[in-house]
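ok so i was messing around last nite and threw this chain in just to see what happens. nothing serious, just curious
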Amino acid sequence: MLALCLSAALSVGSLTVYAATEQWNDASLTPAFTTKTAVSEHTDWADWKANWDKIKTNYEQVALIPGSDFSKLNFGWYSKEKANEAVVRIADNKDMKNAKEFKGTCTEGTVINGVQYYSNKVTADGFEPNTTYYYQVKLNGKWQQAHEYKTGDSHNFSFMYVGDPQIGASKGQVPNESAVEQSEDVAARNDAYNWNKTLNSALAQHPEINFLVSPGDQINEPAGNNAEKHLLQEYEYSGYLSATAFRNLPQAVAIGNHDCLTTSYQNHFNVPNPFTAETNSTVAGHGYYYTYGSALFIVINANNYNAADHKALVEKAVKENPNAKWRIVVMHQDIYGSGLDHSDSDGIILRNQLTPIFDANDIDVVLQGHDHTYARTYQLTSDGKQYDDFAEYKVGQHGQDHKVLDNKLKSDSAFKEYYTSQNRCYTIADMKQGTLVNPEGVFYMTSNSATGSKFYNLIEQQQDYVAARSQTWRPTYSVINITDDKFTINTYDAQTGTPIDEAYSIIKR
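result:
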């Protein structure tokens, strides 16, 4: 599975080998944060550069993650000291009077630059709707600064949906201020700055946002069996987690093909209900699920190409939450995207396996990333026919079958045509736009880059399943609002806050 994961990270399995475009977001050319509600500690590019060495080595930042249900909140963080128990305390006041303590685990984690760090995980509960709380974590034996956490309305909530922050992916690009190709470290500095900008802008424009959902690729650096690679990965995680917004904003992130190569993902993020029964899990961790109000979120580790694992996860999550009004899957690889690099190749290798699973379990929405382009589909269903599952090209003993498939697709035009036909396994159930009432099928979204660290072109021929798509070469984000009977998604330009597409809504009565 590690080899399969690495091949995905290197785009093995594509019909043609493509690379990121020269379009990217150069932080040296972007304005400083100007919103009054911006929360970044370093709002100016020059200030950010001057402080980067401190930012990138701040490995002990706390990640808030949604708990298994609305009343819970998970915490994950690194520490240098090993404690018998990880501890968080929660209060309804900033002075932390009468705070309640919650204890969890402190286990051996990542070694960074020769130093052993420990992974701390705690779950707190008892949270009520529309209430302000304060929390503190105990780091290396000392209570840290108290931070605010506000709960929302479980019957009317919003979350921010972003694509591929991929901190460090702009390496090799040439910034305006130096005319020298960016190293991995400089690229992480650039992308982390823009990541802060996107989060701050989105929260200033949409203060109603309650949490964040990412379909993966938080970082860029592939795995390597040397200390330098591990150090770069943790620089990128530090840059990703440096967003001050994350002190107050929970995040539910999937495992991308660039995240799946090391244990750092599962050491940083304390996900709820991890599906440890996966038979082909990656070293980064597992899929998981949680509820928030009337919605059930199922996060798939799509770097695992064994669809039986995903079927078991979906069925388990649905069985344990039979009354959830909305069923939303989050996954990295876009099985119905429109990008040049992945949407007609490795992006569809699981399509004929996952689509029937989503249909059988009445999934409403699938949120995807991976293709660094924007696309949304019509309502789609499986066509109910039997297709070749290409199992021999999915799970090989040594993970080499992806490369075999890649070579066969490029060398054999008849096989390429057959492969494509066997993955055209869908029916367009509803082509209405705007607001749909009780539609059939599943709605699929592919998000563009939220940082501008890397963009891809759109595929030349727009697929028939795509209702709208775009490549603006600018970071974007979506805001999804869910009530007990309505799902609505809007997508915005990160800098200006203007919509890049019309709203799409589903009403269930």
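not much to say yet. The first strand starts at residue 63 and ends at 66.
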